[in-house]
Each structure stands twice: as structure tokens, then as C-alpha cells.
């Protein structure tokens, strides 16, 4: 097994979709090839998922349902639901030190939430003059953050003091259009990107101005940095644009055909890039900067179609959870020693008897046997009447029981002769054990045993009815 294949098995791709699903995909080896296999699917949001952020074992998702869901992937469970926003959550990012989660939404709020306690420690209700906040990106140092809003102003936040450091009016930058997009910091923190309808701008933090401006054939949709001075851009025509600030490097700018539809999301992790298209296609790429040819620097490793429209994508590092957490290949499983498994067989009842009889006749007899005592009689007459009534009730129940016993015996003989319409058919007599095996089992119980059980049940009911009649007469 190559080292690259082992590294890919320690990755899990996290995807948010328009269809409200949060999907996970892992890399498996089949016939010595990397294959993307779905690892989980969750549908907690009631609206489309717009953003997903990952830090260590934590995953945060924000959607158009105004909610933020927190997942702890160490035990693969959902731990928190944050209801701090009153509008669609547009962007999420964790601070590099893992102490806070930054979120912005259409309600105009910029909120910093403390991890583990999940309480809002800072909230700016009118971060961009009350207009929707569309982007937020945290500096690698964790001391600064950039945000974009519908007011066409880029704000630089001092996270140490919790206030705006300065503002940059982007209305004068006509190339960025009405709404700038793709705000991302470089890994070194020296540069950040902004994009417009047909342009990608790389800004320098030292000069607070545009360092390079690249024109594109189609609209830039997403950007991610793969090195301190190199980034890749996903375009609307499905291509990937490679941009490099290193002047000594050959091929500072080149395009690579990646998807048939627009590249909706892109993310990098170590030596890998994951791209997602609007058609639902997901691809995993390997970055190989040792190649001399420009287009050979990105090598496609695996691809699949998720059957949904992706909106955002991220990568979870499974190596932090240990080797047992990652998916083991079929070759590794064959080398493991198999332990014997003790199978405990459950015992099923061999016979199930179903007894049915009509209770309407008993209720009628019970009504006839009850007589209302007259108010003029004395106590001695009442006691005599109770005894007479009891004798009458006993006779009635005996006659009724004999009739039911005869009917029961008749139905039993009809059943043995093969009468399908009989009350105690073979289907009702089939045992639970034989039913599970799709086999019929003929009941092997004598008639005398059936009649004895029937008599005992009728006697119990008779005693209860007699007691009930006595209590009613006394009242």
C-alpha cells in the first residue's frame, strides 16, 4: 500500500447540500484504486445548508433555517443547536486556536460563540449598518478577521479588543461588481482574495491594497489557498484556475478542466484538494508540485456523484482519532485474526393456542339474572332472594357452558375434516416457530384438554359475574 493511499484513508469529506443533507464521504481502496464511499448522512436542517466549518473534531453547519448545528465527530453525534441568528447563516469559521466560532447572517449580526460552552460571548447586531453580512474569514493568527456585507464595505475586526479596526470602501472598485465574493486568507496570513464577475484580486496586508489582479474567462465561484503563495479558483464553466505569486515558478497561471458544470465549492487540506460541481460530482485531487508541466500538478484520485446539489465542502482529519477510526481495507481485514462468535439460539414456543368465543350471550344472561330488589321487603326476604338468584345464575351458566362446549366440539371436528371456514382454522393454530420458517404445524392437543381449558375459563367468568350481581343488589 502506498503512502498516498494511506493518507487519503485518513480524510473524510464533509458536504452541505441544497436538499438540506449533510453528507460524509470516506476514501476506500478497491482493486488498488481510491473510491469515495458515503460514510454518513444527516438531515437536521429544515433549509438548505449554506456553509460548513471544521476544526479538529468539531463540525459546524449553518443554513437558511437560521440555525447552526454542532457535531462532535469523536463520537459522531450532534451536540448543540445554536439559535443566535434571526436570518440565513451565510458564513462560519473557527478561530485557529479553537476557542470561538464566528458566524454572520442575513440579520446583519456578527457573533462570536465560545466553544464547549456554546454561549455567545460577543454580538455585533449592526456589523454592516444592519445590512446582511455575506462573508467572514479569520486571520491565521486569530487576532484579526475580515467581513463583507451588502453595504459594499470590507471591515477589519480586532478580535482581541472586540471592535472594528478600520473599514475599506469597495464601491470604487468597479471590477468587483455590486457584491464582492470569495473572501479568503492565505495560509501565511500575508494575502487575502476578493473576486468579482470576471476578476480575481489578491490583496496584500502590508499595503492594504491590490497586489495582483487576474482576469478570468468565466465568473469565479470559490477560492482556496493551497500554499503560502498559491491558490486555486473554481470557475463557472467547470474549470480550475491555478494562480501563483512566485515569479520564479513556471506556469504562474493555468486552467484545468475539472467538471462539466460550474465548480460550486472547493477546499484544500495538506496535499489534497476536493472540488464539488453543481451537478453533484465530487472529485479528490492530489497536488504534485514536483511535476514540470503545469497541468500535471493536479492529479485526479477519485470521483463520485452524490445525487444532490452541493453548496459547501470541507475536510475532516481522521488521523486525530487514531488508526481504529479510519476505514480498513479488505486486505487489512483478511490479515486480522477472526475470533469465534458464540451464537445463542432463542427458543420459540412450539404451540400457540388461540381461543375465541362470543361474549354477547353471557352479557344477555347476566342482564336477565339481575333483579332489582323491592324497597318494601325486609332484610330476611333480601337474603332469600339473593340465594334464589344465585341458584338461577348457576343454572343459566351451566346450561350456557354446556351449549358452548358442544359448539366447540363441533367446530373442532369440522376443522379436522378440513373445513376452511371454521373458527379454529389451521392458520390460527400455526405455531410462532413454524410461522417464521414458513411452515404449517398441525395442533396436537386432545379434545378433552381443550374442553377442560374452556370450562375453567367459563367458570372464572361465572364467579366474577355472580360476585358482581351480589354487590349490585346490596347497593
TrEMBL record:
InterPro entries named among the record's database cross-references: PAK1-Kinase_Regulator (IPR051959), WD40/YVTN_repeat-like_dom_sf (IPR015943), WD40_repeat_dom_sf (IPR036322), WD40_rpt (IPR001680)
Biased composition (Acidic residues): 411-420
Taxonomic superkingdom: Eukaryota
Record field: compositional bias (Basic and acidic residues): 380-403, 431-449
SUPFAM superfamilies membership: WD40 repeat-like
Pfam families the UniProt entry points to: WD40 (PF00400)
UniProt-annotated stretches for the region Disordered: 363-475
Main function: Negatively regulates the PAK1 kinase. PAK1 is a member of the PAK kinase family, which has been shown to play a positive role in the regulation of signaling pathways involving MAPK8 and RELA. PAK1 exists as an inactive homodimer, which is activated by binding of small GTPases such as CDC42 to an N-terminal regulatory domain. PAK1IP1 also binds to the N-terminus of PAK1, and inhibits the specific activation of PAK1 by CDC42. May be involved in ribosomal large subunit assembly.
PANTHER family, per the entry: P21-ACTIVATED PROTEIN KINASE-INTERACTING PROTEIN 1, PAK1 INTERACTING PROTEIN 1
Protein name per UniProt: WD_REPEATS_REGION domain-containing protein
Amino acid at each position: 500500500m502506498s503512502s498516498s493511499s494511506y493518507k487519503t484513508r485518513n480524510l473524510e469529506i464533509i458536504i452541505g447540500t441544497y436538499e438540506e443533507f449533510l453528507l460524509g464521504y470516506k476514501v476506500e481502496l478497491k482493486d488498488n484504486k481510491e473510491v469515495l464511499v458515503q460514510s454518513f448522512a444527516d438531515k437536521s436542517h429544515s433549509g438548505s445548508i449554506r456553509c460548513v466549518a471544521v476544526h479538529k473534531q468539531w463540525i459546524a453547519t449553518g443554513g437558511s433555517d437560521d440555525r447552526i448545528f454542532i457535531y462532535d465527530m469523536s463520537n459522531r453525534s450532534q451536540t448543540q443547536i445554536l439559535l443566535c441568528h434571526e436570518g440565513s447563516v451565510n458564513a462560519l469559521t473557527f478561530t485557529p486556536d479553537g476557542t470561538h466560532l464566528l458566524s454572520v447572517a442575513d440579520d446583519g449580526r456578527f457573533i462570536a460563540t465560545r466553544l464547549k460552552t456554546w454561549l455567545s460571548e460577543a454580538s455585533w447586531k449592526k456589523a454592516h449598518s444592519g445590512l446582511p453580512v455575506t462573508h467572514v474569514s479569520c486571520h491565521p493568527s486569530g487576532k484579526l478577521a475580515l467581513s463583507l456585507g451588502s453595504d459594499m464595505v470590507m471591515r477589519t475586526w480586532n478580535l482581541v479588543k472586540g471592535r472594528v479596526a478600520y473599514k475599506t470602501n469597495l464601491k470604487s472598485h468597479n471590477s468587483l461588481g455590486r457584491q464582492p465574493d470569495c473572501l479568503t486568507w492565505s495560509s501565511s496570513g500575508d494575502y487575502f482574495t476578493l473576486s468579482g464577475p470576471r476578476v480575481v484580486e489578491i490583496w496584500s496586508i502590508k499595503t492594504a491594497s491590490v497586489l495582483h489582479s487576474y482576469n478570468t474567462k468565466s465568473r469565479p465561484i470559490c477560492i482556496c489557498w493551497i500554499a503560502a503563495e498559491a491558490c486555486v479558483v473554481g470557475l463557472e464553466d467547470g474549470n480550475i484556475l491555478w494562480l501563483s505569486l512566485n515569479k520564479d515558478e513556471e506556469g504562474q497561471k493555468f486552467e484545468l478542466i475539472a467538471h462539466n458544470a460550474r465548480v460550486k465549492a472547493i477546499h484544500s487540506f495538506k496535499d489534497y484538494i476536493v472540488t464539488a460541481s453543481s451537478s453533484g460530482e465530487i472529485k479528490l485531487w492530489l497536488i504534485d508540485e514536483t511535476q514540470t508541466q503545469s497541468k500535471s500538478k493536479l492529479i485526479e484520485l477519485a470521483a463520485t456523484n452524490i445525487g444532490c446539489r452541493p453548496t459547501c465542502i470541507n475536510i475532516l482529519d481522521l488521523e486525530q482519532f487514531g488508526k481504529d477510526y479510519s476505514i480498513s481495507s479488505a486486505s487489512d481485514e483478511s490479515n486480522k485474526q477472526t475470533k469465534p462468535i458464540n451464537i445463542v439460539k432463542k427458543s420459540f414456543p412450539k404451540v400457540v393456542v388461540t381461543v375465541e368465543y362470543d361474549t354477547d350471550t353471557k352479557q344477555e344472561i347476566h342482564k336477565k339474572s339481575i333483579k332489582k330488589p323491592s324497597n318494601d321487603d325486609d332484610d330476611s326476604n333480601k337474603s332469600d332472594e339473593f340465594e334464589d338468584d344465585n341458584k338461577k345464575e348457576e343454572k343459566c351458566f351451566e346450561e350456557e357452558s354446556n351449549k358452548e362446549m358442544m359448539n366447540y366440539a363441533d367446530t373442532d371436528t369440522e376443522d379436522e375434516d378440513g373445513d376452511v371456514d371454521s373458527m379454529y382454522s389451521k392458520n390460527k393454530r400455526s405455531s410462532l416457530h413454524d410461522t417464521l420458517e414458513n411452515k404449517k404445524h398441525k395442533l396436537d392437543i386432545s379434545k378433552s384438554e381443550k374442553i377442560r381449558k374452556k370450562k375453567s375459563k367459563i367458570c372464572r367468568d361465572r364467579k366474577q359475574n355472580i360476585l358482581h350481581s351480589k354487590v349490585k343488589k346490596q347497593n
